[in-house]
Design goal:
This protein is of the alpha/beta class. 34% of the residues lie in helices and 23% in strands. The radius of gyration is 18 Å and the shape is globular.
């Protein structure tokens, strides 16, 4: 399938993460002339990855850890969900310092963060913990010696609840001196150049419209500062430094492929 090679062709199936950090990109896309040419499906990161792996969509914003598993995967677009330092919504929450924990419950929403935290525990924090796969609602049940890896919108309000928070974006930067890409747009089909240009223009317009979008989004009941989050924590441009961080992550995934809890 070639994207929009025929103006009468069926709509393009696109999967994207449903978190708040994706809203500027989606706002631009849905307010562009492409809106009528796409079938947009929103879900948690792991479900978006599954849709791409099973070829239910032609284009998706997916966790970067899954990209090497997808046949014919091609990075698509100049935009991503990344962080140059603190990301604020991906990390370990706990009642005790990390060197006093014995267990870490892993968020089921995204494989990228699950694998990233294990690499950081090995190389950066140098801590060996027992891993447990989280189930829905796991963030509400934790003992003093257990840490919680939580990502996305569910982290909002938890920074005040837990005395310790270990930001994975910040830790990766301190460890590697590089930024981190949590999710990237990937295609598994041939893409018409005009469609990709229009897609990039739509996402760019969405980022430029963040002030307008903030007026439309409801205020966070936890007091979470969305303006600062969009501007200071999430980095949307898939530039060369971001790609370098992503490719280093791929190298480490390959290095530890037989030693990571999946």
């Amino acid at each position: 399938m070639a994207f929009l090679s025929n103006p009468l062709a069926e709509k393009i199936n696109i999967a994207a993460v449903s978190y708040l950090n994706t809203k500027p990109l989606l706002y631009g896309l849905l307010n562009s002339h492409l809106a009528g040419k796409i079938n947009l499906m929103l879900d948690i990161p792991s479900a978006c990855a599954s849709k791409m792996i099973h070829e239910e969509v032609e284009l998706a914003l997916i966790p970067t850890a899954v990209i090497p598993q997808i046949p014919n995967a091609t990075l698509f677009s100049n935009y991503c969900i990344g962080a140059q330092n603190k990301v604020k919504t991906v990390g370990i929450f706990s009642y005790k310092p990390i060197d006093q924990l014995d267990t870490l419950i892993l968020d089921f929403h995204s494989r990228t963060s699950v694998l990233l935290v294990q690499i950081l525990l090995k190389e950066f924090w140098q801590q060996k913990l027992h891993f447990i796969a989280g189930q829905p609602g796991f963030e509400n049940h934790v003992s003093e010696n257990t840490g919680l890896l939580i990502i996305g919108d569910r982290t909002m309000g938890l920074h005040e609840k837990y005395p310790y928070f270990y930001d994975l974006g910040e830790a990766w930067r301190e460890h590697t001196s590089l930024p981190f890409v949590f999710a990237a747009w990937v295609s598994n089909h041939k893409v018409e150049e005009n469609f990709e240009n229009d897609f990039n223009n739509a996402l760019s317009a969405g980022l430029a419209a963040i002030p307008e979008l903030l007026l439309l989004l409801p205020d966070s009941p936890t007091g979470f500062d969305l303006k600062s989050y969009f501007s200071n924590n999430i980095y949307y441009h898939l530039d060369e430094e971001m790609k370098a961080g992503m490719f280093l992550f791929f190298e480490k995934l390959d290095q530890y492929s037989n030693h990571l809890f999946k």
